[in-house]
Design a protein that fits this description.
The chain is mostly helical and about 425 residues long. The protein has helices at about 30-50, 55-65, 70-95, 100-115, 120-140, 140-150, 155-205, 210-215, 230-240, 240-270, 275-305, 305-325, 335-345, 350-360, 365-395, 400-415. It has one domain (about 10-415): MFS general substrate transporter like domains (Growth Hormone, Chain: A, Up-down Bundle). The chain contains 16 helices and no strands. Helix 3 runs antiparallel to helix 4 (about 100-115).
Amino acid sequence: MQESRGETPSRASWRHFTPHTSGVTPRPASTAALVLFIAFACNMIGRGIADSFMVFVLPLSEEFGWTRARVSSVYSAFLVVTGLAAPLTGLMIDRWGPRVVYPLGMLLLASASLVSANLSMLWQFQLCIGLLAGLGVSMLGMVPASILISRWFRERMSTAMGVAYAGFGTGTIVMVPLAQRSIELQGWRDTYTTMGVATLAILPLLLLLPWRRIAGDRPVRAKTDPLPSTTREALLKALRTRAYWQIVQVFSFTSITTFSVITQVVPFLVQSGLSPLAAASAFGTAGLLSIFGILISGWTADRFGYRWAATASFASTFLGIVSLLAFSWTQAPWLVVAFVICFGSAMGARGPIVSSLAARHFGGPSFATIYGTMFACMSVSGALAAFIAGWLYDVTGGYRAGLFFSMTTILVAASPFWMPRPITGPPPDRARG
């Protein structure tokens, strides 16, 4: 890939968002825009329904008498399955394409919500939310989105990844407060039924999309040495690189930080005196801010480089956790506002940075599988964090231990950008005057 020349940033346009494949005529910008919309919308639906489980924690605990750690294990199971399914999703994209993967993911997610409305045993929730929803969200999430974006976008890859990741925050701000309000009006069982029916109604729209055109062409190989042709050889070669494990470290420990906080923040705020709807709205607002944080992060990475964009987001996350910790001692409303602004604006902000790094280092015919293994490490780490946060609450009777734990992990997540041999990768492609 050669850097574009002779064009100033002010003249950047949708032609930066058309595919660049060797020997292939660029496709229409309208198709590239459709790719972005699909990635954004499916991330919004999948992540929104997944994060809505946060407002089901207290109703399930109260109705069945389960401890916080036991209820959190349902979300942990979901994250484990989502992570372990990521390589499978990558292989399915490589073999059958998005035409099969996206509709199947939507069907599984709708089925999980509909079945959950009739459950009463913990293992049933772990199987339904964990297995079915986990598989569905994996097939709707960033693994297929990253594959499509890597095929259609070049100079502004981090920005495009940011748009896709912004679906996460949009799903949180839309789904979480709606789910909380629905639970208050009709109970958690009818809420799950409503979510399932609404999700199922989207399936025909997915089936009608022009998937042959959307699938595009093979992704461009990275600037570095081309990966071997077979998927197995490509993965083994990636595993022997320093960059692979640095990316995994950033992905995994960022996930630990995030999920150790978000799985407990709504119950924490409720037990601190906020109404359930106010607590859910605070979490949803954090999700709303994450939309802007993700988009700014992707643009900043394209413009100024990965290190400074990532470091700014890590610092914001750290300050947000400090604000929440201070709130546990002094319940001043402005501390909740500080948490929402700092933590929310950085939630998911590393996603486009790390995904772009992965695409630039390992982009090629086997990128789906390689990225899937990275995503698996991230999700499994998040599952472990969700369980640890619940366990720390049960052991200590409070949330401070979990917050100190998350403050430590964010430092580990940021370290690959400041090591003697930092994770950088090929410089971002950006226009030069």
